[in-house]
Structure prediction request, 355 residues.
Amino acid sequence: MQTDFLQEARRQAEICNACRYCEGYCSVFPALHSERIFSDGNLTQLANLCHNCRGCYYACQYTSPHEFDLNLPKALAEVRQDSWDRFAWPRVFAKHFQNSGLMIALASVLCFAVLFLTICALGSAEGEGFYAVLSHSAMVSIFLPAFLFPLFSLAISMRRYWRATDGEPVQFSHFFEAFGSAGRMKNLAGGHGDGCNFEEEDRFSQSRRFAHQAIMYGFLLCFASTSVATILHYVFYVPAPYTIWSLPKLLGIPGGIFMVAGSLWLMGLKLKADRNLGAPSAWGGEMAFVALLFLVALSGLLLYALGSTSLMPLLLAVHLGSVLSFFLLTPYTKMVHGFYRLAALIRDAQRKPAM
Prediction:
């Protein structure tokens, strides 16, 4: 990890620890105030516990032009981003994505879409709906490795993070508290419950919290839809296509709508927000990730709406290309923040009984 990021975060954390004005703002400050000396592991944990709501910055009396020049959201964001790069496996991919995220995402979607179009043109498939263009066996042979690889990569990353932060054996109560906090997006509600100041200095808003919830629950609905379809296919021998009143569609269509709405909402908020209160070098990679989520959801909805037209093969190729890109790039995009934040919340739940 870059020493200058850690040293600056340590300097600011020590000043915050002396002031304690922001103690009730979010989970970061009780955790910060429980320490007296900040190790690299402490700072990594605090950085991943931070949700970058920015309320502490706008409330702080020691920001620029004060000589202390505090900007804790930025300092923690840079440590957080650097920890994701350092713990990633293989590490070199993470650094490249952060430097050229948008171009890599676009190039991967286009390349995979062309690949799927080529397979559809050269091969022959038997079946109904999408399987008349690309066989089920072909989809499985392509997407199963693409699904397993990020899981393996993320498992290595989480293991490295847990060791760096001196994680302890996890109990059910730790999971329960962490998942409850993540499900409510508690740390985006502010210590007072009125939301955070992500977009504007003097305006508390729940917008970022609700946008995140729309994306998260939309993604979970889409994942549940795919899981149910898999069970129907392999356990009950009911293959696709499914009708609009089937469980896969009842889960997938609302999930796609939530993801499209949440992604557009979040991109709008990011365009309004001050980039200097985050990690400026990661802004492009973050926007590329949200745009990729948007493309996955939108192409899926269009594929369902226009699946019986002549546009179906093209839409299928674009959708499958975006989904494959999403899976393969997951360990190196902003998607990893969900895993790290959950791990940080679990680690924080372990800290509280000790206190």
DSSP finds 13 helices and no strands in the chain. The chain has a mean pLDDT of 91. Residues 91-122 form the longest helix (32 residues). The radius of gyration is 22 Å.
